[in-house]
Please model this.
Amino acid sequence: MPLRWLFLILSLLFATAVPAQTPGARLTVQGQLFVETATPKPGDTVTVALFFTPEPGWHGYWENPGDAGLGLQLEWSLPAGIAAGKPRFPVPQPLLIGGLMNHVYEAPHAVLIDLKLPAAIKAGTQIPVSIAANWLACTDKICVPQQDQFETMLTIGSGAISSEQRKRFDAWRAQTPVPLDRAGRFAVEGKRLQIAIPYPASAPLDHPYFFALTQNRVRYAAPQLAKRSGDWLVIESEAGTEPGPIEGLLRIGDGQGLWVRSVAGTIPKGGSAVATLPPDGMSNPADTDTPPLPWLLLAAIAGGFLLNLMPCVFPILGLKAFALAKAGGVESEARADALAYSAGVILSCIALGGLMLLLRAGGQEIGWAFQLQSPAFVLFLLMLMVAVTANLAGLFELSGLEVGGVLTRRPGVMGSFWTGVLAALVATPCTGPFMAAALGAALLLPTLEALLLFAALGFGIALPFLLIAYVPRLRSMLPRPGPWLNGFRKAMAVPMALTALALGWLLWRQAGDEGLWIGLVAAIMCLLLLLGYRRVSRTWRFAGAGLIAALLGVYLAANDWLPDQAPGSVDAAIKTDGIAFDETKLAKLRTNGTPVFLYFTADWCVTCKVNEAAAIDRAETQRLFKQRGIAVMVGDFTRHDPEIARFLAARGRSGVPFYLFYPKSGDPRELPQLLTPAIIDEATQ
Model:
């Protein structure tokens, strides 16, 4: 017989041996009913609180009481059309009595419940609220069932909340656990259970303890061990009698907790031990699941497909349009070209994703498009784009090298393959509306599943060209090859030249004036070498190899002189009269009741810059922020910033843009990745 049932039977036997509780009798754990506002507006969500005060030596129970005890039981009497939400309990404490683990409250505590009112209800309507509550009050020797009837009357009105009630309910909300916005992982080996919970290495932690809500997944009375491994907190204990996912509450400090849901996965190795909460008790008074893999794969494919509409991919679309135009309607050429391009995109996405996962496993705080945070890589792309522009403009041909098929007009699958590689490198700064969740989930999934997500992203980027290659009707819409191709080819040099200019600007932002001059000199040297190659390529058989060696020498020399960071570079926060991102400042602003518009940007993120020009930096938006007293906080991710990377990863994001609005109280609201002034206006109301 389970210990809990034995405990309940003994409690009921005891209850029959003592006088039953009578109305008005003294309760050893007394309850009171509070409402945040007695005059809610139509359609409001009204928070009510059942506030319990245990007498010294007595305690009540959490919703999963543990090995013994009984959780709070509520029976509502509400008018039709009004629904009561799930009770929200504060963080409990463990209490070991006679080998039985109890999840209890020894101090005053409030259980919060939200009531949703219909929008069509008329002003002045009175709403009776009645709750029949049953709970168990215990000491270390005795338990007494308790019951009471709580009643109040709501009157539909203005929705006003007094400052006293606002302060009281905000304090109670602060004691309830915060939903963790990423799923944890669990693994069972024999009788040992391990739960890995995403938790930033820099975040404070005071005597953690895991309270399992899911029944019989953990042996409640077993000791718990904890360790920190990078940005993970691993709890180890003894497995219960039931297999399957585990949901519960992680205590991270005095009165602070996180809701955790877990999925089966790999547990991080190594780490340093952390002291957990003693099981004999201490008298100290983002609920989201990772979606199933098939949905994540569909989201990654959709995100990659939509990425073709982003400005950062436009120059590559020009190259592909040129290649498809050359192929005309020839089915075999179109399919070979599309497959080679797709292979280049997919393999590059897998390589970039794998490198990101490898670096993160080694303790590096990086996100998607991390390569563009490196001035050395930006310099490489700058020289490459100069070469592509010169090639499209007809200034040179790499006729002696097969690799010359890279981004040139000569036929062959190698050119398409390397165009796909370049597409992946250039497209990564953008994260479409479906990519954020998929890329964030990739940081949590096992390695093979994560790499499959990156492959799906690459497939989505290549999908339009695969459709053109394999759908005859679409392919028949392409123009036939002709003399117009030469003019089209030169026209495509324009977006490539603009991309090179943008990379030069980015290099200046990352490495300052010195970096810009070094980049310009490298670009000019690159162009001169390409023009010189045109002159000697017909007479010198090793001209191609000599060109590559010379270009490599220019790049290595320029990279050696390149500063890692611009001295006194302009911060994005200064440009918008905002506050540079700082979690401590953010917490202080929220404590003071200041609404905050927080956004993360980067100079290499074209979508970010478009949003800023079209929505955030607009005069009407800036006036709106001032009128509503909204503080603007900016996280500039142009250069590598571990604090920003941790913040994004903790919210299931691996890149920018990312927009959040923190109201005066309550949970933050996430804004879409494509903004307009109207969207910001609506979200910040």
